Amino acid sequence: MDNIRIIPRLDIKGPNVVKGIFNEGLRIVGSPQELATRYYKAGADEIIYMDIVASLYQRNLDFELLKSVANHIFIPLTVGGGIRSIGDINNALRAGADKVAINTYAVKNPNFIKEAAQKFGSQCIVLSVEAKQKSVDLWEAYIDGGREKTGIDAVAWIKRAIKLGVGEVMVSSIDKDGLRGGFATELCQAVTAFASVPVIVHGGAGKLESVAEVLKLANPDAVAIASAFHYQDYSIKKLKNFLRSKEFPIRQ
């Protein structure tokens, strides 16, 4: 296992960072600039910045807002939401993103992944998957900020997207989102069992032990955390120290 990355995730709606449960009941938790800078200074390995309503409203990212966030942090920044063209990716990168996460448009136009990877390199293209459990070993991929069903097997979709050229996968559990009760470990295991690219798991980070559990059982490359950091259940430093005490390889 390579060094595990701890990544705060910022869900953006308008000018604010928001958080809810099951992608609903959104509450403002701060400004993107303030939170990104705080987490950068606190030792985050990367930042994930997701406009969670851009695809739903069929609009572009606010690139000026993104630029105002990127200008104050000096760690990798993954940006997603409303990405629908090569031009959108280029604009996000010019505004300060290091990687671009794509969900809705990739589901509707899978060959866009191949086109984007060929243009910018696989390392720049992240597949974002919002998954909801339908049976014991079946998860459905959702789009438009986790609001719309697709009827697509999320795990099968990830396999296809990797073949098309994505360089990283972020898998989020809608069922666990915002509950702070632990990750969807079976979903995470189902993805990491075959993935030939780095996998970020998201949705459900609760107590320190819940993070250790998903690392032990699913062996992801990174963990993305929102609520537990936003509501200061613990700091990035405390989490990293705890995981090191459990002998996980954690970045400094």
Task: Please give the structural blueprint.
Layout: E1 5-13, E2 16-21, E3 24-30, H1 32-41, E4 47-51, H2 63-70, E5 77-80, H3 86-94, E6 99-102, H4 104-108, H5 111-120, E7 125-135, E8 138-143, E9 148-153, H6 154-164, E10 168-173, H7 185-192, E11 199-202, H8 208-218, E12 222-225, H9 227-230, H10 236-245
Parallel strand pairs: 1-4, 1-12, 4-5, 5-6, 6-7, 7-10, 10-11, 11-12
Antiparallel strand pairs: 1-2, 2-3, 7-8, 8-9
Keywords: Amino-acid biosynthesis, Histidine biosynthesis, Lyase
GO molecular function: imidazoleglycerol-phosphate synthase activity; lyase activity
Enzyme class: lyase
Write a structural description:
By secondary structure, the protein is of the alpha/beta class. The chain has a single domain (5-245), classed as Aldolase class I (TIM Barrel), CATH 3.20.20. 34% of the residues lie in helices and 29% in strands. It contains ten helices and twelve strands. The chain has helices at 32-41, 63-70, 86-94, 104-108, 111-120, 154-164, 185-192, 208-218, 227-230, 236-245; strands at 5-13, 16-21, 24-30, 47-51, 77-80, 99-102, 125-135, 138-143, 148-153, 168-173, 199-202, 222-225. An eight-stranded parallel beta barrel has the order 1-4-5-6-7-10-11-12, surrounded by five helices. Helix 1 packs parallel to helix 2 and helix 7 (185-192) runs parallel beside helix 8 (208-218). It is globular and about 45 Å long. The two termini are 15 Å apart. The mean pLDDT is 94.
